[in-house]
Amino acid sequence: MGRLRTLTTHDVEKLLFEGRQIVIMDRDVLQLDGWLNEHPGGRLAILHMVGRDATNEINIYHLSSTIRSMQRYRIGRLINPWKNRTPPIRGGAFADPDEIDLTESNSDSDLSDATTICAHSTSSDDVQHHDNARLRNVTKQGVVGDLPGATLTKRSPPSIPQRDAATEALIQKTIQGEVDDNIRDYPSLDSRTQREIEDRYHALHDRVKNEGYYECHYREYAKELARYLTIFTLFMTTLLHGWYWTSAALLGLFWHQIMFTAHDAGHRGITQNFVYDTLIGIFIADFCCGLSIGWWKSSHNVHHLITNHTEHDPDIQNVPLFATCPSFFKSIHSSYYDFTFVWDKAADFAVRYQKYTYYPVMGVARFNLYILSLHHLFLGPKPSRSTRWIRKTELASMACYWFLFGYCLVWRTLPDWPTRIAFVLISHIVTLPLHVQITLSHWGMPTADLGEGESFPQRQLRTTMDVDCPEWLDFIHGGLQFQAVHHLFPRVPRHNLRRLQSLVREFCEETGIKYTILSFKNGNEKVLGRLQEVTAQMELMLQCQRYMAETGESGLH
């Protein structure tokens, strides 16, 4: 391979303006247009990195062999420091650098080099205050961005209803309050501070690799397998003896436990081989549990990249049943589902009681996962050529699950409809702790977006919470209690996370990033408190609307 050509910031900006899918990795400029629809992790994972330095994300999500294979997409070497731009999928647009240079040469004002905050707080009307000459490139996503270094704005899709000015001001004030709190409680967003945090994170990652944290200890999975087989044997024994309720509870416990290993496989944390771990994940998730590992990986990859972002993280998009942030009051368009979550009367009603419906809904959440899995397999994005076999294997495995569980067990083995209904409900409700555990680490944490200036490790630690528990209880939590550690190093096998936690604590002490860890009880209280807080904010918004309707005044002073 010949020597790579050197590219300036201006050159890269020009490529972005032309619509190329450009990602920066260790100063290498990658053009990923040809790989966009072939990426096994889904095209959204790439789209969320366009215009950004994705060195951290690429290094922690991919094996060294995969990273080496990316060399074929290198088109040059960047010689200037790169400042992250907001990807079009998140509301950014890339202006013509030639036109910017011409405009700035005739202007006395310079763009501020300070990091600016983007927390869904800029209304669509604010777009008019920017220089239209700098906004030539309107993306296909229907959003408009601004220049690097300036506040990025987003135009709401036409299907999102607009609220009156007073209500909008109240929502924006509430959102900005969380932004201000996060700025106060976490390290400065200036480029020097965030660069130092990233340098320490790189050093920590080197230590994680060198000290063997990525090595999987298969003896731990031997213990796991013994536990799974014991639970499954007890389930079959009680079923054959006609102890149907006990059998249902044991089946739910089996699902609860075995899905932890599917999570490991989804992150390639077992064999670190894409094909082998995918097959393990399909066997557990699709064949044993009736859930699509392909759907899970598709949504989970995005969740890890843009954690707790209301418009992009599918894990917190649960309107009208739940709202964990006042941003949902404005109605948001999900970039993952390509669907508008409209705030309506149903949301007004359901969110008023969300603190009380949290556990009941978590008890039946598995039924929703069936729907999402089937939607992905039959109506989801067309798989790439390299992953077409996965979709076919999933469909076959899912068919086996429904034949064995739905027909052989529920229909043929259980004697009558009351028993069938009770069996299905009990087996699914028993998985409630798993769904609570999944939501626990994020629903009580900040959702404010502090912009492209925030480093990857700081955002992950700011939006994620660990759960403290004694080591002997680790099998109940399945490694999900170390979510903050896991979000920093998602490929590390879960049996190594407790040991790695001490290094993450040291990293947080060195960088000044707050490390949030609570007991399971206190974590639940934090989530319920957050739900109650958002309910109170919604009630205030509704009071404002009623006052406006009655008096014609906002009541805001």
UniProtKB/TrEMBL annotation:
Q: Which PROSITE patterns match?
A: CYTOCHROME_B5_2
Q: Which InterPro entries match?
A: Cyt_B5-like_heme/steroid-bd, Cyt_B5-like_heme/steroid_sf, FA_desaturase_dom, Fatty_acid_desaturase
Give the record's pathway. Lipid metabolism; sphingolipid metabolism; Sphingolipid metabolism
E.C. number, please?
A: 1.14.19.18
Bilayer topology annotation: Multi-pass membrane protein
One Pfam match: FA_desaturase
Q: Where in the cell is it found?
A: Membrane
Give the transmembrane ranges: 228-254, 274-296, 395-414, 420-440
Q: Which UniProt keywords apply?
A: Heme, Iron, Lipid metabolism, Membrane, Metal-binding, Oxidoreductase, Sphingolipid metabolism, Transmembrane, Transmembrane helix
Q: Which family does it belong to?
A: Belongs to the fatty acid desaturase type 1 family.
Please give the name of this protein.
Answer: Delta 8-(E)-sphingolipid desaturase
